[in-house]
Amino acid sequence: MTEVSSAPRTPASVWLLAAAMVVAYGLFTLASRDRQDAVDFAFALIPQRFDTASPYRFEQPYEMLGPIFGHAFLHAGWWHVGLNAFFFFLLGRLPAQRLGDVRFVLLFLISAAGSAFAYLVLAGKGGMPAVGASGAVCGVFTAYYLAIPPHWSIALRDARIRNQWAVIFFINVVAMGVVAELGWFPIAWQAHLGGFVAGGLAYAALAPKRAQSPWD
Length: 216
Prior knowledge:
This protein is mostly helical.
C-alpha cells in the first residue's frame, strides 16, 4: 500500500491576515458613522495629513504609522475586502510556507508600507484618501512568483515566471492606472506599484537560502 501525501497546510499567518481584513471591515460596518469617520481619519491614507503645511497634518510623527500600515485593513465595501482577501489567501500560502509565519507577516507589512509610500509620493498632496490591502497583496503576488523555484534568483532568470508576473503587473498597474486617470474608477495604481516593488525586495531579503537544485 502506498501512502498518499496530503496537500501542504495553509500557514497560520495567511489565515490570520485574511481574517484580520474581513473582521476589521465587519467591525467597521457595525460602528457608528462618527466612529467610522474617526477610524478613516486615523488609518486611511490621506495625503494632506502628511503635508506639514496642512491643518490636517499629524500632531506627532508616530501617528503616521497608523495609516502606513492600517490602510491595508480598511476597505470600501464587501466586494473590496472579498477580492483582496481571496487573492491574498490564494497566493499567500506558497511564500508563507517558504518564509515561515513571522517573516511572511513582516513581508506583508513591508509591502503595505511600500504601497503607502508610493501612493503618497506619486499621488501628490492632492491625492484622494486611499484604503485597502490591494497594494500589500501586490507585494504578495511578487513574492508568490519568486517563491515558485527553490531560490528567488532562479525566478528572475526564468522567462515563464517573468512573463506571468509581467501580465499581473500590467493589469494591476498599467491598465488600472489608465482606468483611474480616465476617471472611470478610483483605483490607487500607485499603491499597487509600490506593493509590487516592496514585496519583491522584502522576499529577496527575507527568504532563506536554499540548497542547490537542477534549476541552478
